[in-house]
Amino acid sequence: MLLLHSPLMLLLALAFGLALEWRIGEPRRFHPLVGFGGWVKRLEQRLNHFSRHGKYTGIALGAFSVLILVAIPCVIYGLIQTYLLRLSTDDFNWISALLVLLNGAALWFALGANSLLSHVRAIATPLIAGDVPAARVALSMIVSRDCSQLTETEIAKGAIESNLENGADAIFSTLFWFMLLGGLGAIAHRLANTLDAMWGYRTPRFNYFGRCAARLDDVLNFTPARLTALSYTLLGQTRAAWQSWRTQAPQWDSPNAGPVMAAGAGALGITLGGNAIYHGQIEQRTDLGAGPAPQAGDIARSMMLVKKTLALWLLCCVALLLLAWVIG
After folding, report:
1. What confidence score (pLDDT) does residue 117 get?
2. Membrane-spanning residues where (predicted)?
3. In the chain, fewer beta carbons within 10 Å around the N or the C end?
4. CA atoms within 13 A on the CB side of 67
């Protein structure tokens, strides 16, 4: 909020960004993240000669790449906003309106609510209809695991895990950083999260080069992930969610995905996790949650949990901004 004149401006930017997300959703053509992903791929191909470089060189090149890809767009955005702030006054005028539009557009760029739910729905619909091959294809669009031989239960498990975890990454972490730093925070988080999604793997290719991207994403998502896990806990089967979060999350490799998925699985009363094939290798994963294995119908229940969590977060955001406006 310190980057804008008043909490009211941030509230208006929030409303504008949500309106764009609701009415337009993810752009089908000329999506900025698609272009950004192209830059990420080209830079990695030029710098990540993992067969020639040692550990520290690989990490240094990865850190340099993260600096270029995250810092430069954020600096450009910050310079534009700083220039507009210098021209504006305390009274709401056309420059203030531009700042609202700028920050709202940044939130729309970073927020992935419509996209996530559409992808998850595209898995649930054929799976409920009994079209397992189509559900496998739809799941493969949003996960990195091998989906070619998955059963109905495994497909449902993958869809729910992605829904819960990406809900934290693509929706709630974005809102968290938007509330703290406006559009600049939302953009910084989305770019860092995209780098982690593309480079954050413990494979020979990315183990060193992608390490900085993975750590940056861990830091940015640490607090939002736990707030998301708390929200899932409060809005579902609270006792089971809390128990799963407390006992199972520490056994998960990811410090942020563990709490989110354990709490989400417990809240839904199902069991997630378990072994899965990634990059041709079986990854040993602990079980998360409590209850039976998920079925196709449980995907819709997980989507409802994310929607209820989003409603709760938006109510809290609006209440905090209105309170800050009144007090200020």
Report:
1. 95
2. 56-80, 92-111, 170-192, 310-327
3. C
4. 6
Q: Are 278 and 254 in contact (CB under 8 A)?
A: no
Q: pLDDT for 122-173, tens place per residue?
A: 999 999 999 999 999 999 999 888 888 899 999 999 999 999 999 999 999 9
Q: Which residue has the tokens 């929200």?
A: 231
> 232, 226, 257, 220: which is closest to 309 by C-alpha?
232
Who's near 283: CB < 8 A, 6+ residues apart? 275, 276, 277
pTM of the model: 0.93
Q: 31 Cβ partners below 8 Å, 6+ apart?
A: none
Q: What type of residue sits at position 232? A: Y
Cβ contact 225:257 at 8 Å: yes
- pLDDT tens digits along 244-277: 999 999 999 899 999 999 999 999 999 999 887 7
Q: Which of 214, 174, 175 is nearest to 195 (CA)?
A: 214
Name the token pair of 192. 């860092």
